[in-house]
Amino acid sequence: MKVLKFGGTSVGSAQNIKRVIDILQKEALTSPIVCVVSAIGGITDKLLQAGELAKQKNEEYLTVFDTIKSIHFKAIEELAPNAESILTDVEAKFNDLKQLLNGIYLINELSPKTSDKLVSFGELLSSFIIAKTMEKMGINAVLKNSQELIITNSNFTKAEVNYEVTNKNITDYFNKANQQITILPGFVSKSQLGETTTLGRGGSDFTAAIIAAALTVEQLEIWTDVSGMYTTNPKLVKQAYPIANLSYQEAMELSHFGAKVLYPPTVQPVLDLAIPIHIKNTLQPEATGTIISNQNNGSNLTVKGISHIDNVALLTLEGSGMVGIPGFSKRLFETIANEKINIIFITQASSEHSICFGIDESNAEQAEQAINSTFENEISLHKINPITVEKGLSIIALIGDNMKSHQGISGKLFSTLGKNNINVRAIAQGASEKNISAVINASDVKKALNSVHERFFEVNTKQLNVFITGIGNVGEKLIDQIQQQHSFLKKNLKLDVKIVGMANSRKMIFNPKGIDLNNWAAQFHHADPSSIEGFYQKVIELNLRNSIFVDITANHDVSKVYENYLKQSVAVVACNKIACSGSYAEYKNLQDLSLKYNAPFLYETNVGAGLPIINTLNNLVASGDKVISIQAVLSGSLNFVFNNFSDKKNFHDTVKQAQFEGYTEPDPRIDLSGIDVARKILILARENGVPMEIEDIVNESFLTKANLESDSVDDFYETLIADEAHFQKLYASAKANNCQLKYVAEYKNGKAKVGLQEVPEGHPFYNLKGKDNIVMFYTQRYPEQPLIVKGAGAGADVTASGLFADIIRIGNK
Ligand code: ADP
Ligand code: ASP
Ligand code: MG
Questions:
Q1: Which range has the worst mean pLDDT, 164-168, 320-324, 762-766?
Q2: Known catalytic residue: 680?
Q3: pLDDT tops 70 at residue 350
Q4: Candidates 1.10.3720.10, 3.30.2130.10, 3.40.50.1820, 3.40.50.2000; correct CATH number of 305-448?
Q5: What is the pLDDT at residue 403?
Q6: 2-217: which CATH topology?
Q7: 290 CA to middle of ligand 3, Å?
C-alpha cells in the first residue's frame, strides 16, 4: 500500500486534478492507494480572509465567498459537466459555509474553534469533488472523511493527535476496506468531543504521514508543485536545484527552518518506521524528486540545503544581575512556554550577561509584556534591563548531517555574508551541528540566500553584478567586450558577468537578471531619466551579491559617491582619475573604506589606460621591493604633439590635429599644461605609499605665460600662433642636441616632477611612437635594468580592457 498526498497547486485547477487522477490510476495498478488531498490552492487563505472580514462586519466577505464558490464550480464544470449529484451536494456545502460566515458576521467573533470549522470546508470540498469525479469516470475510488479517523485534543488551529485512538481507527477502517483508491481530505481532524479541529497550516502533509505510519506502508509520496526539496527556496534563488536524497533529520531541519515544501511534523510519524518519503512534482511526474530516508545515499555533500524563516523578532534580556545566578533562564523560558509561544532560536553569551532568543514577530508584544512582568522586581532594582525587542528580522540556516565532521563551514558562511555587507545580528549552532543559523535583516534575505547558495552549491560559477555609469566610447567598448567574453569567462574562469545597470548623464536602465546585451542600445532609448543619486539608490535597493560600480565618466560628482558604494560593500572600478588625484585625505579615506568594508576599489586605467602599471607597482611594493625611482612618459596627447611638431609644421596646427584626432581632452590645456601627467605621477607616488598632494609636484611648464593665462580654448589657440617662435626654439634646441622632445614624469625619494625634456638617442623614451606610454620602475630588485611597462596608453579599446581586467580581478578574489 502507498500513501500519496497532493498539495494545493496539484489540485488547483481542473487540468491539474486530471493529472492527479492520471497519476493515481497508474500507481493503483501496482498497489492499493490512499490519497490525501489539500484544499484547492489558495482556498484556505481565502476562507480565513472571508472569516476575518465577516468578523469585522465588512460585507466584502460575501464577495470573497462568491470567489471561493466560483473557483469550485468552475472546476466541477470542467471535470464533470452536468453532474447533478455533485452539483447538488456541493451547493448544500456552500449553503452551510454561507451560514457559518453569516454567523461570524452577526456575532462579530471568530474563535479558533470557528476558524477550524471554517477552513475545514477547503479540504472537505476538494476531496469530495475529486472522489466524485473519479466515481463518475468509473474508477474504483471511495471518499473517506479523515475526521472520522484522526482524533486530536481541542487545541484548535494546531491540534495534537491522539495516536492510540487514531492508529486504531485507521487500521480498523483500512483492514475492512477493499477499494483500490481511497480519497481523504488532509488537514482536518476531530477532537474527542467531536469538534472540528485542524493540524496546522500546511497540515495535509501530516495527515498523509499519520495514515502512512498507522498502516506501515512501503512509501509516502508528497506530490507538490516543485520537483523535490530544493537546495534552497526556488522562488528566491533561481539556481537552486532539487536534492536527490536527504536523511530524516536533514529534512526536518530544512522544513523547520522554512522549507515550506514539507510541513515539519510530517517526518515524525514515519521516521521510527523508516518509511521513505518521496517528494514528487505533479506538474512534472517524470522528474526524480527527493527521497527522504535512512539510507546513506553516498552523497558527499556536507551542506545539503539552506533555508530561512521570515518575520522573526529577536528578544534580548541583559543585565549584570543575571551573571552566575541559576534559574534565570528557567524563569525566562517558562514565561514564554506559559504564553504558548514557540522559540525558534536561542543564544547565550558565555559571560551569561545576556540571553537572546528569536520568536515569531506576531508574538513579540505578548512575550515582551510577560517577560517584563516576570522580572518586574529585578528590573526595578536595575539588576536587569527591560527586555529589548527587534523586529524585521529573518533567520537563514545551513543544514547538513555531515557538517560536524568538516571544519571551516561557519567561516565560509560568515565570510560570504560579510563580503556582501550582510550584518549578522545573532548566531546559533546546535550541538548536533546539523544546523548553523544566523539572524539577519529581512531585507537581506534574498541576497544572503543567493550568495550563500553560490558559495556552497555553485562552486563552479560566481555571478558578478556590474553597474556601469558613463556610456560613451569606452563604455560601449566595455559592454561589447563583456558580451563577447561572456561564455569564455563562464567556462574558463567560472565567472558569470552580468551588466545589471547602465547610465549616462541622461538615462538609466536596470535589469536584476542582467540587461540583454544584444539590444541594450534600444532599451536605453526608452529608459528612465538618470541621476547620480538615483542610480546609487537603485544599486542599493537591488541589493545584489558581488555588485560592482564602474565609473567611466570624468565627473567630479560621480567620484564623490564612491564612498557610499564602498560603505555598502559595493566594489568600485574607475577610470575617472578625480578621486585618486584629489586630496590625499580623500584618496586615503577610500582606501580605508575599501579595506573596512571588504569592497575592492580598483583604478588601473587611471594611469596608462589598459597597461598594467598600478598593478605592477602594487605587486612590487606588496612583495617587499623598494622603489628607487619611477620615470615615465604618461601622456598620449603630448607624445602625439611632440612626435608631429617640427620646423615644417607649426605648433598651433599640431595641437589642432591632436585635438581633431581625439588625442586630447576637449580642453587641450589640461594636457598641454601637464596637469594630467602630474595627476598620474601623483597616483603612482601614492600607490608607493607616499602621502603627496598635487601641489607637491613640480610642474615646469613649457608653455608661455600668455598660453597659461588664456581665458578660453580659442584664446589659447591664438596665443599658440603668437608664440610660435617659442616652440620653434624648443624644437631647434632638441634637434641641435640630437634629442627628441618628450614630456617626462619623474618620481624619486618622495619627490615628483613633470616637464618637457630633451631625450638623447639610445634612451628608452627616444623612439616612443604615437600614443604609447612607458613607465620604468627602478627598484632594489631592478636597480640598473628597470622593469618597463610600455604600450598604447590611450584609446577606448584599451581603456575598456583595463576596466574589464579590474572587474575580472574582483571576480577572482
Ligand atoms: P503544497 O500546496 O503542494 O503543499 P506548498 O506551497 O506547501 O505546496 O510547498 C511547495 C512550495 O514550497 C514551493 O512551491 C516553494 O515555493 C516552497 N519552498 C520553500 N522552500 C523550498 C525548498 N527548499 N524546496 C522546495 N520548495 C520550497
Ligand atoms: N490547506 C491547508 C493550508 O493551506 C493545508 C495544506 O494545504 O496542507 O494550510
Ligand atoms: Mg504544503
A1: 320-324
A2: yes
A3: no
A4: 3.30.2130.10
A5: 84
A6: Carbamate kinase (3.40.1160)
A7: 15
